[in-house]
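Worked example

This section walks through a single chain of length 175. The input is the sequence exactly as stored; nothing has been trimmed or padded.
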Amino acid sequence: MLYDDKLDRKIPEDFYLKKFDQYTQEREEILYGLRKQNTSNTHYYELGANILELAHRAKEIYLAEGRTVEERRTLLNLVFSNLTLQTDRINVSYSKAFEILSGVTATWNATFEPKESRMNETETKALTPVSAPLLPRWDEFRTVRWEELFEDPDSTMQQIERLLNPRVQDTKMAA
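Given that input, the structure is written out below as tokens.
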């Protein structure tokens, strides 16, 4: 439309150039925002997936032979925000990410773990929807902005990747 008005001489050349520059800049800002959003979404999913894998493999990673004290400390710092020792008891506070995972896991286990033997039950509740208690927790988990839970998400991502893939780190150091 703007170009047509220029060709039809309905607007002066300087006005056309000013508006053309303005629209070009706005277009570039929008495209930049879209690229940033796509990159952010990818990073968001990668970080969330790595946190899940770290939670799943935390014990294995911590107890693995060859792990350094620093690696174990990094793992503990990622999982816990506070550890205190009182007499013969350790009190823990999870980091924000693992607190969310803890809530989802507790709901999941309460929903799907058998509470008692059902060997003598004549009626199974196979068609009873078991997902109802999970929906609020699942939605909370699904919509977490993982990168907002960490001061430096890029550094956290690197720490998690080093813990999950120690050989990759060794290869990079040897090169």
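What to look for: The chain has seven helices and two strands.
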